[in-house]
């Protein structure tokens, strides 16, 4: 199930990226075309993940540091979906940094990338989970920031 959840839910971060960029007021993002492009890219990344890593998967058990898990038995090439989602998140983070002076989304994505790319000499895979947590906290903080700065129409009764 985790492979199916990963294939269907992780690409939704592309829609989050589009929604975050939309808050900057960039015109083309606010029109239907921007949403359509985000949805198409999201679907393309989900389909790529399904084809590359989910459909027809053969699992084998693996024990690391005393913990049993199941992993894919074969190598499937570069993680296309992860690269696509990361590019969307990083692009949104850089735009938010430039337009709204909010750097934390970009920093969260960059730290996640560094944490995934560099071998860290600890006898645990939990370090990767720590970097994923940093990314999620930066996305949560970004959502809270965007809600805080959003201009809301005043209540007509006041």
TrEMBL record:
<keyword id="KW-0472">Membrane</keyword>
<feature type="transmembrane region" description="Helical">
    <location>
        <begin position="104"/>
        <end position="122"/>
    </location>
</feature>
<protein>
    <submittedName>
        <fullName>Uncharacterized protein</fullName>
    </submittedName>
</protein>
<feature type="transmembrane region" description="Helical">
    <location>
        <begin position="6"/>
        <end position="22"/>
    </location>
</feature>
<keyword id="KW-0812">Transmembrane</keyword>
<feature type="transmembrane region" description="Helical">
    <location>
        <begin position="77"/>
        <end position="97"/>
    </location>
</feature>
<feature type="transmembrane region" description="Helical">
    <location>
        <begin position="34"/>
        <end position="57"/>
    </location>
</feature>
<keyword id="KW-1133">Transmembrane helix</keyword>
């Amino acid at each position: 199930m985790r492979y199916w959840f990963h294939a269907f839910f992780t690409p939704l971060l592309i829609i989050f990226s589009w929604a975050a960029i939309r808050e900057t007021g960039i015109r083309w993002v606010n029109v239907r075309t921007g949403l359509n492009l985000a949805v198409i890219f999201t679907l393309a990344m989900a389909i790529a993940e399904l084809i590359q890593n989910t459909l027809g998967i053969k699992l084998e058990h693996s024990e690391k540091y005393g913990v049993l898990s199941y992993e894919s038995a074969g190598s499937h090439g570069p993680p296309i979906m992860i690269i696509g989602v990361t590019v969307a998140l990083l692009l949104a983070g850089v735009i938010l940094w430039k337009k709204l002076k909010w750097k934390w989304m970009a920093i969260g994505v960059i730290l996640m990338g560094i944490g995934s790319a560099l071998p860290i000499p600890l006898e645990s895979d939990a370090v990767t989970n720590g970097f994923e947590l940093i990314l999620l906290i930066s996305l949560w903080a970004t959502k809270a920031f965007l809600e805080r700065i959003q201009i809301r129409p005043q209540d007509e009764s006041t």
